[in-house]
Design a protein that fits this description.
globular; 14 helices; five-stranded parallel beta sheet
Length: 490
């Protein structure tokens, strides 16, 4: 009887152990499945738990309509991809919407410089009926202020929103950045360059800069961020000359950093924008390596100051080379038309540093599908974080270019197949350097806005760090004097 009871107890014990082991194994497997699923891509994010991240609050609208009243264009994954989209995916329409608050500055700062007179209380022209014309010639090369302002104004029109990376908002608390619509390059060209610095320091250009500084310092938006989230356009190297130091906390849109100290302007906080090309674009370009008879082309000012000394050095090295056009030229008379013909019929076009590291010659070459040869060690290039210029440009160090036969031998070593690849890439990217109104997807206007979008996280970081001690800022001097630092701190 005892043996039977002992056997029964053993049987139940073995079954209990087996059952416990099975349950434990199942729980172990389920727990691992849960861990693996949690490390995979999240299927849902509760955005209400996230801080206010305005440029990045775009929901996936591939399967449903956006809740935002501004419709976001559908993903390019559902469309046939063009070569341009394949090679520059970050230049696509999938960018988040940038919300921009624009000051209603008096017309004297913007369209009033184009001889437009306000009607009624509005400081802005009704661009749906008539757009004030921008001066031609070399004025156009620094006209980004004009195109960006037009784009912001039109972002409020029905039917235009889908083409915009940036939209205007009228409540500054909703904005990602604050736009200052001062046509500073036009002001410089109009009041200084064209009038030969008349009246010295007391000229209209300087007066407008002084008024702008006073206006901004009086604005709540400027004081809240100390100007860090403000966008100021100063594309001409000599524009904003008097005000740039006072407004250096803001984001500048520039052509290069040649005339700015690093603490005032740098690639970390500012945006480099392209020049508007002056020569004619090459529409329906069917040329090829053999039909472009000029090997290397340069036409412009040869004797320059600052870093431009290299131009006359290269002139003496290249002037007798076969198939090389290196000559003095300007925009007077038929100069622009001759330059267009010359670039359209050349394989390579020189872009050499002048008074500043950059010039519109690079963008003239891109519009001509003439492979740029860049000789400018300090040049900064637009959207270089998303565009690989080595795919369609040749870069040569200044020191190497001045070596006997170095440059011409390098150019002659580039054969038809390699040149053709670069020529095709130029045709793919040329739209990114085209200014136009209305703006179109991927053009220069949208690319500049997208470059600003990529700066917004950095702006936010600086703003958030600056607010760390706002609670103790009152009586800060008292706290400083009462607190003693440990001796080992220093």
């Amino acid at each position: 009887m005892a043996e039977r009871n002992f056997s029964a107890v053993g049987f139940f014990s073995r079954n209990s152990l087996l059952c416990l082991f099975t349950i434990t194994s199942i729980l172990f497997v389920l727990s691992w499945l849960s861990v693996l699923r949690s490390t995979g891509r999240p299927r849902f994010i509760d955005r209400s738990l996230l801080p206010n991240s305005k440029p990045f609050d775009v929901s996936d609208n591939s399967n449903q309509e956006s809740q935002n009243p501004i419709d976001i264009e559908p993903s390019i994954e559902n469309e046939e991809k063009e070569p341009e989209e394949e090679n520059c995916r970050k230049c696509s329409s999938n960018y988040p919407i940038l919300k921009v608050f624009m000051y209603d500055l008096p017309a004297e700062f913007h369209f009033g410089l184009l001889n437009w007179t306000p009607e009624g209380e509005s400081v802005w022209p009704d661009i749906r009926t008539k757009i004030p014309a921008y001066p031609g010639g070399l004025n156009l090369q620094h006209s980004i202020e004009y195109w960006l302002t037009l784009d912001l104004l039109s972002s409020e029109f029905p039917g235009f929103q889908n083409a915009h990376t940036a939209i205007r908002v009228h409540n500054s608390s909703e904005a990602d950045v604050v736009f200052v619509p001062f046509f500073s390059s036009l002001s410089y060209n109009h009041f200084i360059k064209m009038r030969h610095r008349r009246n010295g320091k007391n000229n209209r250009n300087n007066q407008l800069q002084d008024k702008l500084v006073k206006f901004l310092n009086a604005q709540v938006e400027w004081n809240l961020s100390e100007g860090r989230d403000h966008i100021i356009m100063a594309h001409h190297p000599n524009s904003m000359l008097d005000a740039r130091m006072k407004l250096s906390s803001s984001m500048f849109i520039l052509s290069d950093f040649g005339r700015y100290p690093p603490h005032v302007a740098n690639v970390g906080k500012d945006v480099i924008a392209p020049y508007k090309h002056v020569i004619k674009g090459f529409i329906n370009d069917t040329s090829d390596f053999d039909s472009r008879l000029t090997l290397l082309y340069f036409q412009g000012a040869i004797y320059r100051k600052d870093g431009g000394f290299i131009r006359h050095e290269l002139y003496y090295l290249l002037r007798d080379e076969k198939d090389v056009h290196f000559a003095f030229g300007n925009t007077q008379g038929d100069g622009i038309n001759k330059a267009s013909i010359g670039m359209h019929s050349s394989k390579f076009c020189l872009n050499i540093a002048g008074d500043t590291p950059s010039s519109n010659r690079l963008f003239d070459a891109i519009a001509s599908h003439c492979v740029p040869v860049i000789i400018s060690d300090e040049i900064e290039l637009p959207y270089e974080d998303v565009l690989d210029y080595s795919e369609f440009c040749i870069f040569v160090r200044t020191s190497d270019s001045l070596k006997e036969k170095f440059l011409i031998n390098l150019i002659r070593s580039i054969k038809k197949d390699e040149w053709t690849r670069m020529w095709r890439r130029l045709k793919e990217v040329e739209n990114h350097f085209e200014f136009q109104y209305p703006s179109k997807e991927g053009d220069a206007v949208q690319m500049i806005w997208q470059a600003i979008v990529r700066k917004v996280p950095s702006i936010r970081l600086k703003l958030h760090r600056s607010r760390r001690f706002t609670r103790t800022s009152v009586g800060r001097e008292r706290v400083k004097t009462s607190m003693q630092m440990p001796k080992i701190f220093w």
